[in-house]
Write a structure and sequence with these properties.
Layout (H helix, E strand, L loop, with lengths): L1 H17 L4 H22 L3 H6 L1
Helix pairs in contact: 1-2
Length: about 55
């Protein structure tokens, strides 16, 4: 999934910059926030074996 995310992020940053955005906004919207969201998803994800054990 890494290369797919990089392509989407680069397209998003390019569009943001083309419409007058800054690199700081691009880094926030397509870098920091997706990483934070990914960390939250990983924190609340269950291991596949846990559901079967209970």
């Amino acid at each position: 999934m890494g290369p797919i995310g990089a392509v989407i992020a680069s397209a998003g940053v390019t569009a943001l910059l083309a419409h007058g955005g800054s690199w700081k906004e691009g880094a926030l919207y397509f870098g920091a926030l997706p990483c934070f969201a990914s960390a939250l998803l990983m924190m609340f994800a269950r291991k596949s074996g846990e559901a079967a054990d209970q």
